[in-house]
Specification:
With 361 residues, the protein is an alpha/beta fold. It contains twelve helices and twelve strands.
Length: 361
């Protein structure tokens, strides 16, 4: 088959959506399919990636992108002003996808399967417009892959008028894939029949962890991922850590160093802040921890994909809510009592082989 996958960002960018698209592309290509992966590329050289995977990588050639897959952000002062003024009311600058996706699909012929990957949702919307314009030239099957809901998002509230274009998209697409069943409630009832549950997928053969774990000399635990004040918020947990006199080390992989600044000043070497690293390296580092911290979302319709990486490390996982009602359990973890750890799901469901085959089915 000829398969075209269109996310915003791809490898080497580290994000759930870029990994979703890239891992699918690699797996489909390994089966012998013709796979074309579009992304906002930047200056990264994809020659080796294409040779090793068999995936054809093409640039979306966007003019308004906030970030490239190489991690570079090239916004001038006018761009920043426009984003500040029009981001929420017009989905600026991602609204560019409304005309960019039809241009991309018009260049490709005889597509058997199209997978558009959101966030951002205007990628889906642009494909819906393309389906109306291209008619018979449009791909035979179109799957819209979604990380979080759009109008049903519990963190970000969008203007009411976007519901009309969201429904327009949902009528046009053949399938809507979401990672967890709880997210279903974030989509309009009339399109529920199009929804398929397909979790995030990873190549297990590239996952390397510490095989013979030994406890650290002091309790050592880690968190990797974003924080959202008031929603996925470790503030109360950190406040409590600041009161502890015992030795411990809390390692956080983050881009938001400012959020942790005041806690770093108090905890000093007890709190170690690290920048994001490639996923393969992260898994190995996390597998050295005594246990891992999973910050719970305040709503159940969204689940952090980082939890899947946690499962693969085979380390105990402690769920922490923003209200930090887990004090007693945390004390147990400090004493190496992990009986109330997060229940590990069937990890094989996240194997890219199983995930990729669900898409093909």
């Amino acid at each position: 088959m000829k398969i075209v996958i269109i996310p915003y960002l791809i490898y080497p960018k580290i994000s759930p959506r870029s990994m979703r698209a890239t891992e699918l592309a690699k797996y489909f290509a390994s089966l012998g399919h013709e796979v074309i992966l579009y992304g906002t590329l930047g200056n990264y050289n994809y020659n080796d990636f294409c040779k090793q995977t068999g995936v054809v990588v093409k640039d979306q050639k966007r003019h308004l992108a906030e970030e490239n897959s190489d991690g570079n952000i090239t916004l001038n002062i006018i761009d920043r002003i426009m984003i500040k003024l029009f981001h929420k009311i017009l989905e600026y600058p991602n609204i560019e996808y409304l005309w960019k996706i039809p241009q991309i699909l018009k260049k490709e012929n005889n597509i058997d399967l199209l997978i558009t990957v959101a966030h951002p949702f205007p990628i889906h919307w642009g494909a819906a417009i393309a389906k109306s314009r291209l008619k018979a030239q449009f791909p035979k099957v179109w799957i819209s892959d979604c990380g979080d809901p759009y109008m049903g998002n519990t963190v970000i509230k969008y203007p009411f008028y976007f519901k009309y274009i969201e429904k327009y998209w949902a009528r046009k697409t053949d399938y809507i894939t979401i990672p967890i069943e709880e997210s279903r409630k974030g989509y309009y009832p009339e399109f529920q029949s199009k929804i398929k549950i397909i979790p995030q997928g990873f190549d297990f053969t590239s996952s390397k962890i510490v095989k013979e774990f030994q406890h650290n000399s002091i309790p050592t635990f880690a968190y990797a991922g974003a924080v959202y004040p008031g929603y996925r918020d470790p503030s109360r947990f950190l406040d409590y850590l600041c009161t502890l006199s015992i030795d411990f080390k809390f390692i956080v992989y983050t881009r938001d160093f400012n959020f942790y600044k005041k806690y770093k000043e108090i905890l000093k070497e007890k709190l170690e802040l690290r920048n994001y690293i490639p996923r393969e390296e992260l898994l190995y580092e996390l597998s050295k921890m005594d246990f891992l911290i999973n910050l719970l979302n305040s709503e159940s319709i969204q689940s952090p994909s980082k939890l899947i990486d946690y499962f693969l490390t085979k380390r105990p996982i402690l769920d922490i809510s923003s209200a930090f009602k887990e004090l007693d359990n945390f004390q147990c973890f400090l004493n190496r009592d992990y009986q109330n750890q997060h229940n590990c799901q069937n990890v094989e469901q996240y194997n890219i082989i199983n995930v990729g085959n669900k898409f093909l089915k």
